[in-house]
Write a structure and sequence with these properties.
Elements lengths: L1 H15 L14 E2 L9 E3 L1 H9 L3 H11 L7 E7 L3 E6 L1 H14 L13 E5 L11 H19 L3 E8 L4 H17 L14 H14 L10 H21 L6 E4 L1 H5 L2 H11 L3 E4 L2 E4 L10 E4 L8 H13 L4 E7 L6 H10 L7 E6 L2 E5 L2 E3 L11 H8 L1 H9 L7 E4 H6 L5 H21 L16 H11 L1 H10 L4 H20 L7 H25 L8
Parallel strand pairs: 5-6, 5-11, 6-7, 11-12, 13-15
Antiparallel strand pairs: 1-2, 2-4, 3-4, 8-9, 9-10, 13-14
This protein binds one RNA strand of 77 nucleotides through helix 2, strand 9, strand 10, strand 15 and helix 16.
Amino acid sequence: MKENLKNKILDAVKFFIPDFNGDAVSSRLVIEKPRLAEHGDLTTNIAMISAKQVRKNPRQFAQELIEKFELDPNYFAKVEIAGPGFINFWFTNNYFYERLGTIIKENSNFGRLNVGDRKKTQIEFVSANPTGPLTVGHGRGAVLGDTIANLLEWNGYDVTREYYFNNAGRQMRLLGDSVRLRYLELTGEDVDFPVDFYQGEYIKDIAQHLVDEFGDSLKENQDENIFKQRAEDEIFDDIKKTLQRLKIEFEVFFNEKSLYDDGSIDSVVNEFRQKDLAYDKDGAVWFKASQLGGETDKVIIKSTGEPTYRLPDIAYHRNKFQRGFELIIDLLGADHVATYPDVVAGLKALGYDERKVKVLIHQFVTIVQNGEIVKMSTRKANFITLDELIDEVGADVVRYFFIMRSMDSHLNFDLKLAKTQSDENPVYYLQYAHARIASIIRYAESEGVELSQTPKFELLTQPEEINLIRQLEQFPDFVESCAANYDPHRLAEYLHETAGFFHKFYHQHRVVTDDKQTTSARIALCLATKIVLKNGFDILGITAPEKM
RNA sequence: GGGCCCGUAGCUCAAUCGGAUAGAGCAUCAGCCUUCUAAGCUGAGGGUUACGUGUUCGAUUCACGUCGGGCCUACCA
């Protein structure tokens, strides 16, 4: 409908400005739902942005434009000029009734779109190394990433969720050593546990498992790998379990090590050398980032012979391109902001279209406990694990909490509030609307209400009814724009509003009455609301309870 | 020093990539259940959108500056 209207508007404008380029002003041309209902169902600023070109005042030009519009009276009830020159449009009820029918007909597919055109898309998120349980901070990335993936799937993208990890390197060695020391401790040795080792209780648990299985027979074992491997296995297992509790599943776990094994790392360095983008200095290999817009050149291989993180990151991203992904999304925490410019520069240097890489940065989660900010570190083990959080408030609340805010904003997570007031969490407001509808439908069935195949929608004329339909009808618009902007929080907000419109309708009007026709129409409206809520919950990854 | 993000009601956050009267939740106060779920609804109070300048029909939004907070700024990942 919006597209249709846009074309009609552009046609009208072209009558006055023949060379008017819709694309050139598309950034300024807005057709949208006004904030206030009294300003209609759709509004456009076309008269204001183009008035200068025709040397007319906006209101007058708006009037002339309106006279050129050829609007279908079946769908448009009224057009009005308002304020400085807005043109406001009102839909007919008939339009809303048609949309209501569409919602019910499309059911669980209502809101699914094809704008992605099956484009091969990869989204990488979480990507925490297996050195400890996932923290609340990881949780934000996990939930955002999965929800964005869901949104893209609803838009018709072919999405692969991927988790990148590194099980080599210093941190992992430290992890293995930490387990070994705890193991020795448990087998009766006198151990001085260094402060910079992993302090968490989970290290002791892993050590205990080794004691249970092997007794003290590993004491003399010189193969330190046993401890590291065991730690990695157990921790990864836990991470996957935690993610599963949030209904997050990755299609691919990508091990950084494979990039060394298959020669990808070397080949990147060689290509850089060939293109004269790498050079040796002080025993290290440097990447000429400064030549590609970076601030300074960066080390890619240390003088010890070990690559820095940049090199495998570049190789990994090249691998993504080689696998044929056309849209590559990286969701990173704010602590990684500095890393991606080098990666992007590297890819560009290798001849890839860096515009296909979309880097999303989410800000940190600050944990507030007893009014104080808790500094978190995996090694110091003073973090709140994601698992503990799920234990406290449940998976639905965790998911909703992490998507209800823009990823640009720093998230303050007040633990006390989350625990003691979880019953007042906004997610219940949404779910309650769904459960309430389910209950009404159960009641209707128990009363023997027969649902008409062709409800008389035209009986829905009350403001609360029309407002609700108007809201429901826009669901696909939100699915599309939230995906286009990688911005799931607005969908959460939309659903919150939708629940509100339903609650208002419910309080004003009885659904099941003696009037069979009206009952049938209102049940249909309830069903449509339930469909939109359910589809929205699916995208957000929260459950749609039939009872609460 | 430089880069990124943020600053909006007592608190936590919105405001559909420049729109019309800046909105929700929590907290406070006052109302609404013998009828389909009161985890709900209705109403009240609460704001110089950190501050200043600029851009224009129009600024919470954009540009520049100041102040304040977070993160980054490794031959750590």
